[in-house]
Specification:
Layout (H helix, E strand, L loop, with lengths): L13 E4 L2 H10 L10 H6 L11 H6 L7 H6 L6 E10 L8 E14 L4 E11 L5 E12 L2
Antiparallel strand pairs: 1-3, 2-5, 3-4, 4-5
């Protein structure tokens, strides 16, 4: 069983620069047809200072952590037992190419179901920009199978 004393544990914070090329690649890979996500002139015409960050891209940037396995290592979770259960996004402001985003992840909850056969870890991440403005709150639910 995962030790619940880790609830509230803050994982290492990190900062990532949002790169134009990666935004264009993500838009293409996800089949985005709105030109505002890949054409800077169209983005500016729509009122953006640069290409906007698509909604789910923040989770890609979260993987830029210096150690993306830090939570699994801390909790001693076997990757072979992990299931990705859900993602949730709560946005407060737009992010754009050229922004420097700070990610502040923490373990928000740990619980189990089915008499411990399934354990759940909730990670919440606060994202702010280079001006200290909150951009979003990310929430990820990971399931660990113990059977």
């Amino acid at each position: 069983m995962i030790d619940k004393r880790h609830i509230g544990h803050t994982l290492p914070n990190f900062t990532v620069e949002v790169e134009t090329g990666r935004l264009r690649f993500f838009a293409k890979a996800t089949g985005q047809t709105d030109p505002v996500y890949c054409d800077e002139d169209k983005a500016r015409a729509a009122g953006h200072p640069s290409l906007p960050v698509p909604p789910t891209f923040l989770f890609c940037l979260e993987m830029e952590s210096p150690n993306p396995t830090a939570m699994r290592e801390l909790l001693n979770i076997d990757i072979g037992r992990v299931l990705h259960a859900e993602q949730h996004f709560s946005y407060q402001a737009m992010a754009h190419a050229g922004d420097r985003l700070r990610f502040e992840p923490r373990i928000a909850d740990i619980y189990d179901k089915k008499n411990g056969a399934l354990e759940f870890v909730v990670r919440e991440t606060r994202v702010t920009n280079q001006h200290g403005q909150q951009v979003a709150d990310l929430r990820t639910l990971t399931v660990i199978r113990n059977t």
